[in-house]
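Lab meeting notes turned into a lecture example. A postdoc, R.K., suggested we walk through two folding results consecutively so the class can see how the record format repeats. The first protein's sequence and structure tokens come next.
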Amino acid sequence: MARGLRIFPKTLTGRIMLVTALGIFLVQGINSFIRYEAMKGRAVVEASSLIVAVTANRLDFGAIEPSRPLERRPAVRTLRSTAPLVVEGFTTTEELAQRVAMHLQSVYPEVQAVRLSVGPIRNLPEQLKPRPRHMHAIRRSDIIERYRRGEAALLSLKLADGSWLHSTTKIRTRGMLPQWPLLIETLLIYIGVLIPLLLVIRQMSKPLQQLNNRLSNAGLASDEPPLEPRGPDDVRSLIESFNAAEQRVNAMLTEKDVMLGAIGHDLKTPLASLRVRIESVEDEDERAKMATTVEEMVQILDDILILARLGKSSETPVLTDLSALVEMVADELGPDDRLAVAESAEKCRAMVRPVLLRRALRNLMGNALKYGGRADIAVRCDGTFVAITIEDEGPGVAADQLTGLFEPFARAENSRNRASGGTGLGLTIARAIARAHGGDVILENRSEGGLRAILRVRQ
């Protein structure tokens, strides 16, 4: 389903509110139906009482006037027949019929049997179809037709001479369940239920959102205080557990930094000593190869230490002009204009750790120069993210290998291999730094050839 046609919301608040609103609508619909049926039952009783009164009047006077209602009475149609009348769609109301029979037979002994049924007016014989008492000459047929769109009560009496007396009147259901009061009642129910529910949900969702933001921004550990436990007991317990876990992780990161610093110091000292001893080797070619190996080991060690320490950096974020930072790194790597930085229409500033971000940029630009010879660089910002795009003119990378390049010590085939140098940690470090700044690094092949690297950081 397209996003514009999405009905079911994604958020917890939206889903609870939607389900509750639908539940209230369903319950109110059932309630309205029950109330309508109850009011309809009372309307049937009222119509039956009217028919009984009119029929008693006919029995008192001994005359049947099928087309003339009693004075000041709604229209009641009567008909005498020699046989019982069976009308399709009419159902008998047994309990009410028994009550009517007891009343009439106690006053009029000639009443032998009583039948009371309810059904659609359109199924009645024409002589028994109710009609309004007052009609204008204009559009008389339309008035009668509208009046007959409903249900009628049919009372059939079997008299002592074997004949049947049938009387009908319309059951007046119009206006039984007024729309405006019902709408106002439904609206008040929605307000009385949804507003308190929204307040309760917000009390739960707000601390959960803060917890989610803390988890989303997890990367470079900071000195932020623990989250304040708020909301219901379950949410408070979750936040307290997260605070405890965060403290344990920070403690492990601190211990790891101390250990890595010691390892780095212990390893670099013998490497420096080995570099000095290499100078005593008489074979110049062997001496150069050994020096290159030592330098590569030092570079690998530096990259491993940088990657390991990304979890907890002591560098303070600073509001930085990223366009100027990019130009500075480009000047350091490519003074011969092999790195062309496009002019930015606006200054893109963000709270970043400049030293770490420069390391990520150097890795990406260095790769572009190494495998493409030159690169075009552009900086763009949209108020949420700053995107630094680096496009080289190299051979590119197979599509199925793009994701694997971010793995430590991973290299693509062809030109991106061990022979071209590097430790295999450049992209890993660049992506870790970008994610620590709320962004990411994306690699994609250009249609015209070459590779495009996009480093994004949150503003």
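The second example is placed directly after the first for contrast:
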Amino acid sequence: MPDLTQLVKAYDVRGVVPDQWDETLAELFGAAFVTVTDASRIVIGHDMRPSSPGLSQAFGRGAASRGADVVRIGLCSTDELYYASGALGIPGAMFTASHNPAQYNGIKMCRAGATPVGQDTGLDDIRRLTEEWAVSGPPATDATPGGGTDQDVLADYSAHLRGLVDLTGIRPLKVVVDAGNGMSGHTVPTVLDGLPLDVVPMYFELDGTFPNHEANPLDPKNITDLQAAVREAGADLGLAFDGDADRCFVVDERGEPVKPSAITALVASRELARNGGTGTIIHNLITSWSVPEIVKEAGGIPVRTRVGHSFIKGEMARTGAIFGGEHSAHYYFRDFWNADTGMLAALHVLAALGEQDRPLSELVAAYDRYASSGEINSTVEDQAGRAAAVRAAFDGRDGVTFDDLDGLTVTGPDWWFNLRPSNTEPLLRLNVEARDDAGVDRLRDEVLAIVRA
């Protein structure tokens, strides 16, 4: 029996095509997905990777073989697939490997209403069935094979987003958008159409081989083109999306990156105002202290969670939260079925900037109160041992506390750091925040000296 544990991750399926998986496996995944979700109708979308159309078609064949009707929405962003799942009220599957290199592909799956399918909510069952059926084939079924229809939801998706943020009265803005040859090149022209925006497009051609740069805007080297273009064009801001366009990264008019925590705080303030100054806001434990501070000041209730979209979405459902944000530039909205959409966050930034006269750097300064290190990775074989050594080094210091919500978080009077092991690699990930850069540098160097000893 094949072992698919390296292919089926905590939140999705992801691996190299055809080395780790192919259309034969995709068809079995489709059959298993329908079996586990007990769906009579599903929606499937895919990104621009060369392998995506074939894999998605195979998944659809597997789904139909178990009696499900298949709605094919074709080329789309991941949040467009979530929109379709939410609006149609049916489970969905998105074929994408997000920001991974071209030889990768994957499946992000959800139940009706864009509810995530993760390791503990059906993905492990899908993996086990797929492993069994790869040997024996799916069992016979009395179900009548499902049919298939093609449906374009881009206009409806765009209208839904535009209905959540009023951009009609903003001042004219020049915005550079780097699509990274990913799916925002498909969605941005429709979503931003008719607004008082001078859009300067970069790499809008859909190309799953990523000829210009990786479609991962959190890596600084992948936004250098955008930064230069913003400065050269004298633009008001720049937006960069990842490959499947569910994450959005922002640079200001100087070409300087705006921290995702600042965007989280900005959007949280706007969503609280839109909801009468009350509501719960979810933030993961790597986001800046600025986020819960600003949420409280705006009348909201901040709730701290582990890193990862399944935890965020779970807490949003449990608390009825109106918005959630992560340090990785994932932004989640109650009015988008608790799913993440970088495009809606981008619309909020455009609205906030366009509703007043200051440049973006001045606007976001109020939401960015602390210095931070960003995420620093260290290759470590004994992750638990190194983390224990760090804990021991800080244990007993005045005013220092520990918590283990997700990895090790150590908090002092005017600083904190988090040390988390990677789930898939021998890495420890360090994030540090303090009052100023000097404080960050001191703490970072002390912790890394122990981690890398």
